[in-house]
Queue: 4 jobs
Job 1
Amino acid sequence: MALATDVSDKLSGLFDKHPCWMIASLAEQLDYSVPSVRRFLARIGYYSSFTHNGRWYTLASIPRFEHQGLWFYKDIGFSRAGSLTDTLVLLVSGSAAGMSAEQLGKTLRCRCHSVLVALVRQGRLQRQKLGRSFVYLAADGETAAAQSRAIQKTDRIQLPAEMAVLVLVEFIRRPDAGFGQLAQAITRRTGVRIDAGQVKALFERHGLKKTA
């Protein structure tokens, strides 16, 4: 018991100095074998990174996970779900309209296209063609159907690129105009009917703030 307490205290001290360690470095610092250090970590509780092929470790008490269950220390990512594959399944399954590889890569700060393809082959995710790329959906049929409907709804209200440019130019000219006023101006100019909802979706997609 005394030995276990001593090792636990040493481990805690090392993680107080640096929140993330590789297992070989911990073994060297503690003067124990790598399998022994893994057992010590298991007793205390730990997370291994979903980035860097899971080579980084942190104690379970250290991460302060955000709403998506992610925590980053510099470029090292940890997930409440654990591995990269489990994290991808969790994020995609919990999304309202699925997620693209680009969206997931930005969120997780790592490339994950090949892992997503493998998850589809394993039946842990589905995917749907959208334009030139794919949107990944939940494996559950009911959830995937709801995500697909949300994609179709979003796609219907999304303005073509040339129309979006005209809206943004009009907004620069008339920054006080509301969504409806901008829509009416473009409709009059082009003869193509667009509505306030489409303009609002455009602003939300680009992170622009505008009072409706």
Job 2
Amino acid sequence: MTYTTTLALAAALSIALALLHIVMIFVGAEAYRYFAAGKEMVDAAQAGSFKPALITLGVTVFFALFGLYAISGAGYVKTLPLLQPALWLIGCIYSARGLAIIVQIVMLLQGKTGANLETKDLVFSLVSLFIGTVYLIGAWQRTTAINSTP
């Protein structure tokens, strides 16, 4: 698989997350509760506050920007500023979130009852780790390809 394909996959995954967050805005409190956005976000959404929607919209913009950087790295659009370091950084951000699975597994193995971990929490971490890995592989493939071009 070439960096073009890998980064196109990374872009699709980030854009899918951006779209998921847009759906969350329209679903409201139940979506915030399911995706563990926190009690304050759920309560504010139930009260009709625009704050959760604005925060979620901000997160959506970041996911869309991450997708745009991956599309740029794949060569489908103009090269964005600081493209290569941005791809590495985005991969690290997703991976750092995904590495929460280590803490989650330790908590489950220790029987921490206050953890309130569900299977979906582990899945969310695995998805983040997967996306981060895709970005990091794509960034590495792109760096290798660029450096090997005469």
Job 3
Amino acid sequence: MRRLPAHWHLTHEDSVVDQQNISREGAAFALPRWEFITICAGLMALNALAIDIMLPGLQEIGSSLGVTNENHRQYVISAYFAGMAAALLFYGPLSDRFGRRPPLIFGLAVYILAAIGAVFAPTFETLLAMRAIQGVGAASTRVIAVSMVRDRFGGRAMAEVMSLIFMVFMIIPVLAPNIGQIVMLFSTWHMIFAVMAAIAFGIALWTFIRMPETQHPEDRRSIELRSILQGFGIVLSNRISLGYTLASTIIFGALFGFINSAQQVYVGIYDLGVWFPIVFAAIAGMMALSSFLNSRLVGRFGMRRLSHGALVGFILVSTIWLLWSLTGPVPLPVFLVLFAIAMFQFGWIGSNFNAIAMEPLGHIAGTASSIQGFLQTLGGGLIGAYIGQQFDGTVTPLAAGFAGVGIAGLAMVLIAESGKLFHSHSAPPSSGKASGGH
């Protein structure tokens, strides 16, 4: 059994779950821990890549394909999320039945082919179709990467690993807009999708060669409708899991809203021009730093204390930002400071909320990740699309969206925790097998 890190001080919160699931990691798993984390991060980063690398090219895409309404350019992002949300519910049950590798490789192939198809899209409608199909493929990486982590880790161990994955994942928003900007300097927006396909192919090849099957044989579930519905029922009836899933869904809506309107804010309001990717990368770097610190602190302070404190801070900073914007234009330095603080706290919310939501559902990890990913992507995407479409030439709609989702997310956490915050979970949910359906 792998020993717990020396800096961990387990009291009540998920100590039983940690010990049970760390033992499942097993010495027989041949892939080094660093490589496992890097591959999972790379798989999840393909989602960020599909969005962030093309942000510098949205204006040219709109001009090239005859999009007259500048807000409609955001549909290139919304179509991707729509395709992903539509497919998320399928990959979980498939991965619980056939293992993680086959559905993952299939999804990666779809992602790559759709990116290649987008290179040759003659109309905006065709491009949106390719983006939706690309989202269908990307759904496999979202569901199965989290499932593979849950196969090997649980409790605070999972929160630590997810923080490290999120840290590596955030390198993509740091690099991708700059890559997109460089591509735009030497070519057209079409080449952005070619670069996207090439990067995805490299990650897919590494995964195919090196990543072994992570699902435990005893956790295989039937793909019959009754078994699938039973798995859905287990996930949706767990108050802790559902509450934190809904909370993260709402909070992620703020991130999606910003991504949808990032080009309009940075270039349209603050006239950053070619500096847009650099500023975008700096904010992403703050989130990466936050994730790294979370990985070091979660063992000592626990997932709930860190994430609840970050959520309260997120609300306070967003409210200050909103009130400032209502009094007049927000100067760029003030905007960047407040936004960076909010995003820093976002880094503590995301990985911990996901780990808490997955904690009681280890033996149906694929189905659980599928449902959680579906709710987060569809719900967060819709919230984000609404926030983005409210853009009016100021940062007020974005600030209002951030404050609003923070308050709504806090309400979901209070429901999940029966009105208590900042406490250790004294009765860890059982990580035993769900009955039936195996």
Job 4
Amino acid sequence: MSAPATERPLALALGGLLALAAAMGIGRFALTPVLPFMSEAIPLSASQGGLIASANFLGYLAGALGAAALPPSRLAMGFLAALAASAATSAAMAIDGGLAWLALVRFAGGIASAGVLVFSSTLVLERLARAGRGGLASLHFSGVGIGIALSALTVGWLAGEGAGWQGLWLACGIVSALLCTGAAILVRPSGTRAGAGAASAAANPVASPVASTVPRRAGLSPALVRLAIAYALFGIGYVVTATFLTSILRASERLAPFEAPAWAAVGLSAAISVWLWSRVSARIGGARAFALACALEAVGVAASVTFTGMAGLGLAAVLLGGTFMGITSLGLIEARRLSGGDPRKVLALMTACFGLGQMVGPTLAGLIADATGSFYWPSMAAAALLVAAALLVGLFAEREDG
């Protein structure tokens, strides 16, 4: 008989890593490296590519809210079903069924990604805490960045061998299926109850067990309203570059060969960002850390279209990957700190704001890019929104006690 999951916390955290690598790193973000090939071959305009991306984010929002409401007795079954659906929808993107089909598949993939995030985080985090290994949560959430890097390596290698966009999606589906199989083996069912932990995972691509220990404040305070608005602005600001970075590089003859390495750099930076920003937050406070991360991301977003050399490319990739997961985690922790009593309403508010920003960003950026002929103005607008988010939170940051 195998040992309980709480007796093998490292294996449990690795299982969570594999689940998030499949469903988030590939299922949610593989569109970015594949999109330039789709745009050229189908073809797709920038606005159509943005619409497909927005459909995924709409599905993610719906899936996150729905998964958080699933009865605890169905948690393990929901986890396995979401894993299977995530791999299947990645592979199904290889079917050329037109714009409506691609958007529908991405919508379904968004639901599956959110389900895997909620269910795996609920199964993993509390059991790690019970085993006294809560620090392994960072390993679990690093799966998002690892999956992004895997998608970059897969797409870059097969594209170099002459594979078309359909072959790239099929390969991503196969890699996802292998990762999901490993996750299903390592993450076993338990008596973990779905509750606020599931809701917090639903609210964001990343979450932190630290959030469950922070004090509460009563009411929907001005600080919380500013944070929610900043979170929506962040949703728009990060997703423009996260969706179109490789498309931006494709437009430059000199930088086009570095599409895959740049996306891999985003993933590797993202893999360590949650650990990094949790330590920054401990030193300067959650609000200031959130503002600093938004400001740094604004630099990266602007760099993606203002610097045409390798230095600008590296800066954009590292700053995007090194901040977007950290910001989502910091936003969650700060929202819980500012909430009063049961934090679920606040988490729902943050979910809605973040989800709305993600849905608006790609479509709006695509429309502007079609009208202007480049992603310069959409990216600069996104950078401006990130600066606004930093100011909304940073200028009013209160000093942390102790």
